[in-house]
């Protein structure tokens, strides 16, 4: 079954053992450690594992894990799919994912934005999916204009088929050196990082109040390409003008956008919407995101939001009549800098029962105070839960805060 | 004083990368809680900077937007005229460097600034990222500065400015000082919502514009300050 050289087979097998140990000891999902062990033994392992797989790479600031899951679900219609389902999106995670299912003819890999050029170079993936770019963990992440420029260089002169969101000007710019692009009008709600033309710095003009409006630079020729696929309310419109009601279980506009991208990607693999869409509708939660957990009659919907654009999307799927618990940390994976809190417009929470916790709860408390939003400060998540009456509760947390809540519920998926 | 306090936020479309809006919101809140009516003006880089503001704010950003911002401010001239009229200015990070004679561009090349502060900046060897704490120049009568810095800049202060503070933790200008001031212009590397962590600095800007201020409930500000200062100044 496997065409891998012996050394690569051994590296891959030892990596899987490490992953199993990580899960068995409750230390993690096992998706990073396994790959690290494998890469240590065979540095060229990723290239070897990717060889002969039909591969899609998925990158964006937000929605990578969910869209990866949607695409992987759709492609299962065609055959087995290897994928990094738990968001381990750097080369170690990719090795782990591809090792765990070497026989699969298809691979769908979520890729960290910074690593995309390197991973594309190593894997020579045939399909690259690019959704959005916005400010995110600026103390360690690359500046996004620079990031888009690196995408341009990485895609230029390659045969890869790119699926890109043309409603995000920076993504459009990043994708437009590719030989072949399918443009998806997936919408863009967060505009704060795209007031200026990525090509020349001039002002971008766009119609306000429409999520997938046309945009164009006032000073140069850079403008929104004609979309091939369109998200229109609850429907996807395909390149032939056929309308598909999405009817997802995943909530919110952002997920409808992710689904249209997944349909366009499936089509790039030759899978038509009538076969892909039922698979997308089966997805209920993604590595704990959007999942519902219960404790003592409190039914909590868990939402992950890591940056201002992500919070905007999370607010979209909360319900104003429900109490809401917000938890913010500033560990390494969250970014040690909490200044992004000031880019989130929290006024939408005014009048709701808001509980604030997490390691950086005082940063969030002041932020809400300045926004005029009333709240109750609690020491930890459990205290918030027991302070609330039984019923439905929304929970929004950033990365490590989310993982610690998820761990309280047995790493809920 | 005119009917309402005018806070002008310069170029949020270019220079607003690290929660810079926080400074606008904190000034607005602290003025309103004192009963001072406030008007906030957001000036995009394609529009002229109005001259009739009381407090001007400019924030941080990436290299390319910083260069564009400097070019447009120089061409526009509105900020210079406002400063001549006696307005105050808080310039943060990339915006701070723009106020000097020169700063470092994408490849470290010198790019002309707009010359409102007697400083010159260049690119350092490594990025300074982390918490910063600093003792403020005694003439300003402010408590310890606290905040977060994230920059590669090194800034040399000329005789026309006074260091804003001396660093206890962090890099700041790179010579043991952090930020500077001259007249009613304050520059700092404390990025994003610097005023949220330093409400006394916000009040200094408000006093310059609106005169003496009544006290207000600062408890959330103080709790956050104490926690952050406690975290970085541990004995």
From TrEMBL, chain A:
Zn(2+) binds at residues 197, 200, 217, 220. Signal peptide: none annotated. Residues 304-401 form the Lipid II isoglutaminyl synthase (glutamine-hydrolyzing) subunit MurT C-terminal domain. The keyword Flavoprotein does not apply. Pathway: Cell wall biogenesis; peptidoglycan biosynthesis. Its EC number is 6.3.5.13. The active site is at residue 337. One of its GO terms (biological process) is cell wall organization. Residues 61-170 form the Mur ligase central domain. The keyword Metal-binding applies. One of its GO terms (molecular function) is zinc ion binding. Keywords: ATP-binding, Cell shape, Cell wall biogenesis/degradation, Ligase, Metal-binding, Nucleotide-binding, Peptidoglycan synthesis, Zinc. SUPFAM superfamilies: MurD-like peptide ligases, catalytic domain. InterPro entries: Lipid_II_synth_MurT, Mur-like_cat_sf, Mur_ligase_cen, MurT_C. It is an enzyme of class 6 (ligase). Gene3D superfamilies: Mur-like, catalytic domain. It catalyses: beta-D-GlcNAc-(1->4)-Mur2Ac(oyl-L-Ala-gamma-D-Glu-L-Lys-D-Ala-D-Ala)-di-trans,octa-cis-undecaprenyl diphosphate + ATP = beta-D-GlcNAc-(1->4)-Mur2Ac(oyl-L-Ala-gamma-D-O-P-Glu-L-Lys-D-Ala-D-Ala)-di-trans,octa-cis-undecaprenyl diphosphate + ADP; beta-D-GlcNAc-(1->4)-Mur2Ac(oyl-L-Ala-gamma-D-O-P-Glu-L-Lys-D-Ala-D-Ala)-di-trans,octa-cis-undecaprenyl diphosphate + NH4(+) = beta-D-GlcNAc-(1->4)-Mur2Ac(oyl-L-Ala-D-isoglutaminyl-L-Lys-D-Ala-D-Ala)-di-trans,octa-cis-undecaprenyl diphosphate + phosphate + H(+); beta-D-GlcNAc-(1->4)-Mur2Ac(oyl-L-Ala-gamma-D-Glu-L-Lys-D-Ala-D-Ala)-di-trans,octa-cis-undecaprenyl diphosphate + L-glutamine + ATP + H2O = beta-D-GlcNAc-(1->4)-Mur2Ac(oyl-L-Ala-D-isoglutaminyl-L-Lys-D-Ala-D-Ala)-di-trans,octa-cis-undecaprenyl diphosphate + L-glutamate + ADP + phosphate + H(+). The lipid II isoglutaminyl synthase complex catalyzes the formation of alpha-D-isoglutamine in the cell wall lipid II stem peptide. The MurT subunit catalyzes the ATP-dependent amidation of D-glutamate residue of lipid II, converting it to an isoglutamine residue. PANTHER family: LIPID II ISOGLUTAMINYL SYNTHASE (GLUTAMINE-HYDROLYZING) SUBUNIT MURT, MUR LIGASE FAMILY MEMBER. Forms a heterodimer with GatD. Belongs to the MurCDEF family. MurT subfamily. This is Lipid II isoglutaminyl synthase (glutamine-hydrolyzing) subunit MurT. It comes from Herbidospora solisilvae. The gene is murT.
From TrEMBL, chain B:
The keyword Hydrolase applies. One of its GO terms (molecular function) is carbon-nitrogen ligase activity on lipid II. Substrate binds at residue 127. Signal peptide: none annotated. Keywords: Cell shape, Cell wall biogenesis/degradation, Glutamine amidotransferase, Hydrolase, Ligase, Peptidoglycan synthesis, Transferase. It catalyses: beta-D-GlcNAc-(1->4)-Mur2Ac(oyl-L-Ala-gamma-D-Glu-L-Lys-D-Ala-D-Ala)-di-trans,octa-cis-undecaprenyl diphosphate + L-glutamine + ATP + H2O = beta-D-GlcNAc-(1->4)-Mur2Ac(oyl-L-Ala-D-isoglutaminyl-L-Lys-D-Ala-D-Ala)-di-trans,octa-cis-undecaprenyl diphosphate + L-glutamate + ADP + phosphate + H(+); L-glutamine + H2O = L-glutamate + NH4(+). The keyword NAD does not apply. GO terms for biological process: cell wall organization; cobalamin biosynthetic process; peptidoglycan biosynthetic process; regulation of cell shape. InterPro entries: Class_I_gatase-like, CobQ_GATase1, GATase_3, Lipid_II_synth_GatD. Pfam families: GATase_3. Pathway: Cell wall biogenesis; peptidoglycan biosynthesis. The active site is at 93 (nucleophile), 191. Its EC number is 6.3.5.13, 3.5.1.2. PROSITE patterns: GATASE_COBBQ. It comes from the Bacteria. Residues 6-198 form the CobB/CobQ-like glutamine amidotransferase domain. Belongs to the CobB/CobQ family. GatD subfamily. HAMAP family: Lipid_II_synth_GatD. Forms a heterodimer with MurT. The lipid II isoglutaminyl synthase complex catalyzes the formation of alpha-D-isoglutamine in the cell wall lipid II stem peptide. The GatD subunit catalyzes the hydrolysis of glutamine to glutamate and ammonia. The resulting ammonia molecule is channeled to the active site of MurT. This is Lipid II isoglutaminyl synthase (glutamine-hydrolyzing) subunit GatD. It comes from Herbidospora solisilvae. The lineage of its organism: Bacteria, Bacillati, Actinomycetota, Actinomycetes, Streptosporangiales. The gene is gatD.
């Amino acid at each position: 079954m496997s065409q891998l050289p012996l050394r690569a087979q051994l590296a891959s097998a030892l990596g899987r053992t490490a992953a199993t140990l990580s899960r068995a000891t409750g230390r993690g999902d096992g998706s990073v450690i396994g790959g690290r062990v494998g890469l240590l033994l065979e540095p060229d392992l990723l290239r070897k594992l990717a060889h002969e797989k039909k591969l899609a790479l998925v990158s964006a600031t937000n929605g990578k894990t969910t869209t990866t899951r949607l695409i992987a679900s759709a492609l299962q219609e065609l055959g087995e799919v290897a994928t990094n389902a738990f968001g381990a999106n750097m080369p170690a995670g990719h090795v782990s994912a591809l090792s765990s299912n070497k026989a699969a003819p298809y691979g769908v890999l979520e890729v960290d934005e910074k690593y995309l050029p390197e991973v594309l170079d190593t894997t020579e993936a045939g399909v690259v999916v690019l959704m959005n770019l916005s400010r995110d963990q600026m103390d360690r992440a690359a500046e996004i204009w620079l990031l888009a420029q690196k995408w341009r260089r990485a895609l230029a002169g390659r045969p890869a088929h790119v699926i890109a969101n043309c409603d995000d000007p920076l993504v459009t710019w990043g994708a437009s050196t590719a030989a072949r692009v399918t443009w998806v009008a997936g919408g863009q709600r967060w505009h704060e990082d795209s007031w200026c033309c990525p090509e020349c710095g001039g002002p971008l003009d766009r119609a306000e109040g429409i999520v997938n409006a046309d945009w164009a630079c006032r000073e140069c020729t850079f403008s929104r390409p004609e979309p091939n696929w369109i998200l229109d309310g609850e429907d996807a419109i395909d390149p032939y003008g056929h309308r598909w009601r999405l009817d997802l279980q995943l909530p919110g506009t952002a997920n409808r956008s992710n689904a249209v991208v997944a349909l366009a990607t499936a089509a790039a693999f030759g899978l038509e919407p009538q076969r892909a869409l039922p698979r997308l509708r089966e997805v209920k939660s993604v590595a704990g995101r959007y999942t519902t957990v219960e404790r003592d009659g409190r039914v909590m919907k868990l939402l992950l939001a890591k940056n201002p654009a992500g919070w905007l999307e999370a607010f979209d799927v909360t319900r104003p009549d429900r109490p809401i618990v917000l938890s913010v940390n500033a560990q390494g994976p969250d970014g040690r800098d909490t200044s992004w809190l000031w880019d989130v417009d929290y006024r939408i929470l005014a009048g709701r029962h808001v509980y604030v916790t997490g390691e950086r709860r005082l940063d969030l408390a002041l932020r809400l105070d300045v926004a005029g939003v009333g709240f109750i400060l609690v020491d930890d998540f459990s205290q918030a839960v027991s302070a609330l009456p039984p019923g439905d509760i929304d929970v929004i947390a950033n990365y490590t805060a989310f993982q610690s809540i998820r761990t309280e519920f047995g790493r809920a998926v | 004083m005119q009917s309402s306090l005018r806070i002008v936020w310069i170029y949020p479309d270019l220079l607003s990368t690290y929660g810079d809006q926080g400074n606008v919101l904190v000034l607005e809140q602290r003025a309103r809680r004192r009963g001072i009516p406030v008007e906030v003006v957001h000036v995009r880089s394609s529009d002229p900077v109005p001259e009739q503001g009381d407090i001007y704010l400019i924030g941080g950003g990436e290299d390319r937007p910083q260069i564009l911002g400097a070019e447009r401010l120089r061409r526009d001239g509105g900020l210079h005229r406002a400063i001549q009229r006696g307005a105050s200015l808080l310039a943060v990070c990339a915006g701070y460097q723009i106020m000097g004679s020169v700063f470092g561009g994408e490849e470290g090349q010198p790019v002309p600034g707009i010359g409102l502060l007697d400083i010159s900046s260049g690119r350092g060897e490594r990025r300074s990222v982390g918490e910063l704490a600093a003792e403020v120049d005694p003439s300003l009568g402010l408590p310890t500065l606290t905040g977060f810095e994230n920059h590669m800049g090194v800034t040399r202060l000329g005789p026309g400015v006074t260091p804003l503070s001396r660093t206890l933790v962090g890099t700041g200008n790179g010579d043991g000082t952090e930020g500077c001031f001259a007249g009613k212009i304050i520059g700092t590397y404390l990025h994003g919502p610097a005023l949220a962590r330093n409400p006394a600095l916000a009040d200094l800007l408000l006093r310059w514009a609106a005169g003496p201020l009544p006290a207000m409930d600062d408890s959330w500000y103080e709790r956050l300050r104490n926690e952050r200062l406690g975290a970085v100044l541990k004995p």
